[in-house]
Amino acid sequence: MSATLSLSSTFISRHGLDEGLKSVRCSPRRYNERCVRKVGALVTAKFDLKPPPYPLDALEPNMSKKTLEYHWGKHHRGYVDNLNKQLVGTELDGIALEDVIRATYNKGDLLPPFNNAAQIWNHDFFWESISPDGGGKPSGELLRFLERDFGSFEAFVQQFKSAAATQFGSGWAWLAYKPSRLDAGNAINPRPSEEDKKLIVVKSPNAVNPLVWDYYPLLTIDVWEHAYYLDFQNRRPDYISLFMEKLVSWESVSNRLETAMADIAERERAGERKKEQVEEEA
Ligand SMILES: [Fe+2]
């Protein structure tokens, strides 16, 4: 597989580890954390199966323990196990999950690890999008943004539900923030520029997520059948309605919006500094 990839050195982060060190090294990521383990002279990168931030029965009766046992315990675990096997010995071994996703999206011509890598990220994000105390209505800046960009909270809910219901086959629906700076470099931006600096609703097939377009995901719903079949059988619209009414953690979505806005502001400042530096050197 490595022969099919051309990655810059910024993707490779395993240099500098001491030989023979038995340790776990973690570095902070924008949306997740990943540990690089080194045991003896063998270096291998290992993604862990991250548990949901609540017990498996905590979402009942809205989402059953049995669904969590299969969805998290079998499907999510399978993506982690498969990716760890796929990455060993490749040039992707040792880089952050988000970088694996961006590198292997490959302008939509997916490289082999993409689906497992993106599904790990999507599921971590999904479990943290819901809560035993979820549902209701957001407040504060998030509500103001939703009202500004969709007309009303109710209009946003309708658009999100529609995207989730109409995703053909397996996939995801997202609320995301679309910044004006588009430097993903590895994907064709699917949305027009008049949607810059706005919240948008977008759906994606299979494992694709908005990171590949350089958008900031804020909320997602998994509409693969494995997410709802045990509780709802084929009634996807009922699952989506219950998700919006009882499960969405608006606290998580608000925190993500705050983090996204801070990150975007920092990127803009960095861009300005770079521009000034270029002008000074000219
Ligand atoms: Fe899933």
From TrEMBL:
GO BP, sorted A to Z: response to light stimulus
Residue span, Manganese/iron superoxide dismutase N-terminal domain: 46-130
Annotated coiled-coil segments of the chain: none
Cellular localization per UniProt: Plastid, Chloroplast
Reaction catalysis annotation: 2 superoxide + 2 H(+) = H2O2 + O2
UniProt GO molecular function: metal ion binding; superoxide dismutase activity
Superkingdom, natural source: Eukaryota
Any Pfam family: Sod_Fe_C
The name this protein goes by in its record: superoxide dismutase
Keywords assigned: Chloroplast, Iron, Metal-binding, Oxidoreductase, Plastid
Annotated GO CC locations: chloroplast nucleoid
Listed InterPro entries: Mn/Fe_SOD, Mn/Fe_SOD_BS, Mn/Fe_SOD_C, Mn/Fe_SOD_N, Mn/Fe_SOD_N_sf, SOD_C_sf
Similarity remark: Belongs to the iron/manganese superoxide dismutase family.
Cofactor(s) this protein cannot do without: Fe cation
Ranges of residues in domain Manganese/iron superoxide dismutase C-terminal: 138-256
Major place of residence: plastid
EC id: 1.15.1.1
